[in-house]
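Subject: for your reference before the review

Hello V.,

The reviewers asked for a structural picture of the protein, and I figured it would be easier to keep everything in one thread rather than splitting it across files. Below is the amino acid sequence we used in the manuscript, unchanged from the supplementary table.
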Amino acid sequence: QVQLVESGGGLVQAGGSLRLSCAASRRTFSMYVMGWFRQAPGKEREFVATIKWSGSSTVYTDSVKGRFTISIDNAQNTVYLQMNSLKPEDTAVYYCAAGRRGTFDQRMGVMRDLTSVDDWGQGTQVTVSS
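And here is what came back from the structure prediction:
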């Protein structure tokens, strides 16, 4: 199992920016993909963005395209989520996720549902005020 530790959440006004970080305790031989999910109050956890461990490809949910950027620092085993032009509807607990099993989707750098995730972080709160 890989431990994932998030940081960087907080309270920000609409239009503002935040950067989330997720540090993995180690890189397993088979770390294929990392990403971010979020869960708003009363809603299901949903996919936000993923990145292949190599950094060669990224995938975003439609609602954050053009506003959020996912990146990875392989030397530090850390993935980042830069969030710009934040909206109140972005308010949620953000969870870091990792894929290690080597499924077809993970090898493609995709984790679109909860069953495709092998490891979760503890979550960090992001609150956007209007």
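For the response letter, the relevant points are probably these. The radius of gyration is 14 Å. The mean pLDDT is 94.

Happy to draft the paragraph if you're swamped.

O.
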